[in-house]
Amino acid sequence: MGKKIYIISGEASGDLHGANVMKELYADQPDLDIRFWGGDKMQAVGGTMAKHIRDLAFMGFVEVLMNLPTILKNIRFCKEDILKFQPDALLLIDYPGFNMRIAEWAKKNNIKVYFYISPTVWAWKENRVHKIKRDVYKLFCILPFEADFYKKYAYDVEYVGHPLLDEIEQYQELPKQELKISASDGKPIIAMLPGSRKQELRTKLPVMLPLVDLFPQYHFVIAGAPNMDIAIYKELIGDKKVDVVYGQTYPLLQQSEAAVVTSGTATLETGLFEIPQVVCYIGNAISYQIAKRLVNVKYISLVNLILDKEAVTELIQNDCTTERLAKELSLVIEGGNKRKQVLEDYSKLKAMLGKGGASKKVAQSVLKTI
Q1: Helices (H), the chain
Q2: φ, ψ dihedrals at 361, nearest 5°
Q3: Contact 143/162 with Cβ under 8 angstroms?
Q4: How many CB atoms are located within 10 Å of the residue 256 CB?
Q5: What spatial distance separates the first Cα and last Cα of the chain, rounded to whole Å?
Q6: How many C-beta atoms surround the C-beta of residue 292 within 10 A?
Q7: CB under 8 Å to 63, separation ≥6 — which residues?
């Protein structure tokens, strides 16, 4: 009888990482029975879907409160579904607000819990470490400094490397993709990565888009979020000459001279492609004020967090104006006097992250111990 694994991911990034781990699990044990919460990528690999991520993603304190009944209903359904399936192991991928609750419950029900992508306990609510240590049988970390952080608590975790390393390496081995953009008159490209949520687009793009007129020698291209209708971009772009590409973020980064990026994983992707960037963050004012009091980190971008220095400029909340953006962007385009330093820091970043293989390491570790 094959082993049974129940996997929960709650966002687009978790769907991607979940799909990669599932491929490795099946490669090792084709008769595994996998039931999961995920998206189209996980569904394409196999297994049985219990819930789709489009019913799950709620961000920020205010948004979560507004959607609380749905979230509580999802938690109830999840517990019942796991008990019915009776898995040999539960693999939780990121999505900590939800997954840590499930971990606590699973531990009480004697279900072995694996957690891939450590909750950011080093950033806030450090006391959660004790809960993780109590409830999670094995924690897989993707940032080099996390293993040291957990050592302080005598908790032995496994650093598996960042999954993006594999993503980008696989991509770079493919033939170069043509960007689907209007003729750019041979102008160099500046990428805009404004995020993937409606509220992000409505706050960031009005600040980013005036750059088009300030840097007429460049062709600006927005990386469109797969879940966002082109109409939203068109409404915000108006009559400016800006292209929007879907499903082409990597080719866009690969062919850009510089980028303006919303904080998040995209900052690390941009760094691994060695594209100098300016990082922007504008959050819901109330959520931001709450977070500022709770969060205990010096930086918001992964590049700076890993390097433990401000290698790329971060413009946060009221500092994130078109004027400041233009000034910082001019420092990192060709000829800008910060460009060389940023590129040197990116080399250090790659050295610190080491080799990839995260999905394989996670899969092997789970299979070895269930």
Answers
A1: 12-28, 40-45, 61-66, 68-85, 96-108, 128-135, 144-151, 163-172, 198-208, 211-214, 230-237, 249-254, 265-272, 285-294, 302-307, 322-332, 339-353, 358-369
A2: -60, -40
A3: yes
A4: 25
A5: 14
A6: 11
A7: 284, 287
Which residue matches tokens 């995260």?
Answer: 358
Residue (of 144, 139, 192, 152) closest to 325 by Cα position: 192
Q: pLDDT digits over 139-156, tens only?
A: 999 999 999 899 999 999
C-alpha dist (Å) from residue 329 to 66, 105, 315: 37, 48, 11
Report the predicted TM-score, pTM, of the whole model to 2 decimal places: 0.82
pLDDT digits (tens, 9 = 90+) for 227-285: 789 999 999 999 999 999 999 999 999 999 999 999 788 999 999 999 999 999 887 77
Q: How far is the C-alpha of 342 from the C-alpha of 310, rounded, in Å?
A: 10
Is the distance from CB of 22 to CB of 34 less than 8 angstroms? yes
- pLDDT at position 184, please? 65
C-alpha distances in angstroms, 40 versus 109, 146, 308? 30, 30, 35
pLDDT of residue 135: 97
Torsions phi, psi for 129 (to 5 deg) = -55, -40
Q: Is 232 left (phi over 0), alpha (psi -120 to 50) or beta?
A: alpha
Residue (of 60, 86, 53, 55) closest to 70 by Cα position: 55
122 backbone dihedrals φ, ψ, rounded to 5°: -70, -20
Q: Rounded to whole angstroms, how far apart are CA atoms 299 and 48?
A: 39
DSSP character string of 107-153:
HHTT--EEEES---TTTS-TTHHHHHHHH-SEEEE-SHHHHHHHHTT
Which H, E and C letters describe 218-244, residue by residue? CEEEEEECCCCCHHHHHHHHCCCCEEE
Kindly state the tokens that stand for 68.
């609380």
Nearest CA-CA partner of 363 in 2, 12, 32, 13? 32
The structure tokens 């800006």 sit at 242
pLDDT by residue (tens digit) across 47-99?
A: 999 999 877 755 556 666 777 888 888 899 999 999 999 999 999 999 998 89
